[in-house]
Batch of 4 targets.
Target 1
Amino acid sequence: MAKVVGSVAVGQVVASMDQVRAGWSRDDGLGVFLDVYRRVTALVALRVTDATFGDPAFVEDLDVRFAGLFLEVPRDVAARRPVNRAWAPLVERRAVRGILPVQFALAGMNAHINHDLALAVVSTCEARGVHPTSPGIHADFERVNDVLAEVVRPIRRSFLDQHVVRAGAPLSPVADLVSNFSIDKARDAAWASALTLWAVRDMGFVADAARDALARTVGLVGRQLLIAV
């Protein structure tokens, strides 16, 4: 694995990712997602030190908490505990044949962005004594889209060029999935979910119900992304 330059805290997260990945096979569905996610996280470690963000300390904290939610998944799997409903489809189908690597990657992005990111925004704001609408928070959240694009868009484009065009019609449903899945739109949805969860965070069963509904909805999308071709 390449050395991570930049944030020490995020670098430690990447080291944890490497340790987890070492125990999985090359074609493991969770591992396929982790390979992409590691590249994004390593890039964030660099960007928090190069004036990309208005409040790099907030972004670093957010990124560490965000990654921590994903790292709970392999811990739960290893301990034979149920995983969060948002991640259940990918965990259940991580070894199914006929599912392409890009589908595993998209399913992981769906679970991590559409579910985990909203929770991470809320927990980071609570820990730092700020509000999601405090000055600069959303602007830095949006800047992360550019970091994601540096990694994700070339991967998606490569899949479309190398596989869909060559294979033709048999892969067209997957081509539609890849073409229509938008990181920017997923992050927009995550921001809306974060505002909702923030608003109800002190409302007991309402907050629990909101988190459960989010996990179930994201999990449903994950199952649709992981149909064997």
Note: Residues 52 and 73 are 30 Å apart (CA to CA).
Target 2
Amino acid sequence: MSMAELRVGLIGLGMMGRHHARVVREVDGLTLVAVADANGDPHGVAQGLPVLQNVAELIDAGIDMAVCAVPTGMHEEVGLALAEAGVHTLIEKPIAHSVEAGTKLVEAFAANGVIGAVGHIERYNPALQSLRERIANGDLGDVYQIATRRQGPFPARIADVGVVKDLATHDIDLTAWLAQSEYTHVTAQVALRSGRAHEDMVAATGRLANGTITNHLVNWLSPMKERLTVVTGEKGAFVADTLTADLTFYANGVVTTEWDSVANFRGVSEGDMTRYAIVKREPLRTEHEKFRDAVLGESQEIVTLQEGLNTLRTAEKVLATASQQLGAC
């Protein structure tokens, strides 16, 4: 695949920045030409490139697109500078630290005619990509419920936000995307159990515009790691395990019975189980390829800034309803 090389700059050289640097170097049509982080390069990703100090220096390096992997609190400042400089930018999730900041980013990218995307990487998990195609194809019939479980130990990276903005945003985004419908209602309970400043456990329920009901259990207090999405509908249930990228379908069995009292019961029975063989590409690589294609005007399979903002707005509502119930969070 031959194309003009896009000059890419990366700002933020932490845990995610390290992975972005590796993938940008692997993807056709992208060349990593500049890296920046005021705190230096702890993982040695520069590989001979000078480690620049800030976004202004990154822009001065003459870049076509940027990856913004700085802490969430800095997304607004860095993103606005890139938008004003006309640089297409992939911003790590969540889009920003507040709905107000996210709104400014959406407006700035639109006003400057540049493409922005949010790194909600779970969308590019092969199991979920396959699941979305199958739902859209009608394999499930009407979708009734989407339930997710994202549980595990505390991550060994700096978290300037709680579990809702750090992790539950994945589930909010992938749920709205799978169902192709936005949230209209959400309510939640949160807990602070580890002595940190932010919530570390949440149980949220919601409803989408199309009537699908949702449930999300998210924490970083579990000794076992779990990343599960269960979509239940008219014809059965899909279970996607995004740790292993496996997708399983449990069909509703169709059993006819002549016994009247049983025949009147409108329930479901257990049918065949199918496990799908899926090509397991690295989600981050797919994410970068889709962003590259969007910059080149070839496709639009990105998480738009507006979608990122919708997700953040839902996350804020989760926190607002939870804090009302706690009295003060």
Note: The two ends are 52 Å apart (CA to CA).
Target 3
Amino acid sequence: MGTWCAGPVLLEIVVPAHNEAGRLPAGLGLLSDKLAGLPVRAEVIVVDNASTDGTAEIARSWRGPVPVRLVRCDRRGKGAAVRAGLLATRAPWVGFMDADMATDLAALDDVLGLLRDGRPVVVGSRRHERSIVQAYALPVRRLGAVTFNRIVRDLAGGVADTQCGFKFFAGPLARAAAADLRTAGFSFDVELLAHCVRRGAEVTAIPVVWRDRPGSTFSVRRHSLRCLIDLALIRARAGGGRPAEGVRVPPQASAPSGEAPGAVAVRESPRAASGFGRG
């Protein structure tokens, strides 16, 4: 049973896209085919992030097995695009992933199962012991990613890989966290997860198959300083320690007893490896 089954849309996936005309058609093709095979109705939201190529037209004219909706975001930055996309969602389960589909979409089967089980935040982790990761094209990028994640683990609820572009949430939680999001650049994942953790959400990390794709817009030379500044701002804003108002996660997903407020441990799911290699 595919996504054209009767009933409401239960899953919406946001794809931020800045000048992705070259990679978007293949990415949308893979994603649409995978979503069509899931037992829930799903939709894709492509966020055109101030592109100057044909990105918007590709999304607008897309015809495939699942609907694709176009959202415009004129503020530059991946964080700004993801925020706009999440705020445009309406489904009970939402997520986002990169246009290059670097993460094998077979993991969506396990994501869906965990969301159905009531897990409020499910993230792909390239540092999970069961993940299969193709080496970064540039060793300096891998070193930078490891260092970055060690610095921010306390902010993001202990997540070992905050930057994998494969994250899913309970819809109301994602929309509330996105509304509070202020980071427009590449460090936005840290702030988004921090807002979820402050609301009592436990983060479940799952193994993924991840392949480095050429054409990444992130540059260690051009973006590292901005990322450090953003992290300093995120820490400063989190310094007050007040629980976030608004959406709270169900009691069973709250912080274990004995832990400090907001210190929600990451749960690593052993699922997912069995699904590797499928669509």
Note: Confidence is low (pLDDT under 50) at residues 251-265, 272-279.
Target 4
Amino acid sequence: MIAGFNLAKQSKQTVAGLVQKRFAHDLIVSPKTGRTIIRTGGGGRSSSNGHVVTVFGCTGFLGRYLINRLAREGAHIIVPYRDEDDMRHLKVMGDLGKIVPMEIHLRNKDSLEAAIRHSDTVYNLLGRDYETRNFSFSDIHVEAAGVIAELAQKHDIDRFIQMSSMNADVDSPSRFLSTKAEGEQLVRSIFPSATIVRPSFMYGQEDRFLARLAMSRGLSVRINGGMTKVRPVNVSDVATAMHKMLDGYNTAGETFELVGDKVYTYKELLDYIKETTNLDIGDINVPKPIASLMAKAMNLLPWQTLGADEIERMMLDDKLTGVKTFKDLEIEPSSLEITGIQYLRRFRTNLYSDEPLKKGVVGAKKVFHTSYL
């Protein structure tokens, strides 16, 4: 062991006329495959952390945050895409040549295999909030996940990290959640050391959670009287957790439920949005059967709307099942009350700025004092 450390200390590399030393902590040996991963450089995007990572679903909401964290350490990242316009913003996140786009099709196994054959880590972030004519929930969450896990096992990938969802359950009334649970089981049966990640509703820039509540004028949040309890989590915290799993071999084979620091009802969230944005959001409650019919009708529109299955999910409380959480990754989740303003500020009307300053209040109409469970 000592000889190994001395060897690592004596290892040198000449770059641009400078001598770079490599130390023992620059070397990582995979306990699964014995593959050696060596860091080079002084750190940052122009260095290399030795990893080649494939991120399926990278063009989605969470993908950009995860790739940003991987790229700033110098990882080589394979970016599988279907539409070239969807991945252009990812290319500038890494140094020249570090972000490698590859066109894929989920029903073309050869294209999927080409995207992972040179990688040591695979993230599967694939997921859909609604079904389309081309892809059902089962196609994305089960069949595609199974094929990717099978290929990862075939090419002896070190780490496989599967994105699932909070409340995933094969017996769930929501097809989204039941297929997510089926996907978990299939991935684990093929790749036993896979890490399963179950985040709650994620919020952040361009999300489909806080933004939808702010734009909905209260219609969507009055399902179940607005009393469904959720634990929304900052997308940056989820990306940080998944980034730590890259070298966290102690997370292999584990399941993580990533939730925010507090429990909120939809009604409390709407009150917070009202006071933060000064929006006049209504309080109409819509019974579930009527809401489901409305969602089905809106799905006939040519653009993305609220799906009927999402109505089912809005009826379910977030419940922890006793698996690992942010605490096991030594991460303190962000507070929605502190960070939410970053994402809601753009919804403020001109009336917010026209409000006169009130005694004891600086830069805001009111202060949010609602207590949470």
Note: The longest helix spans residues 137-154.
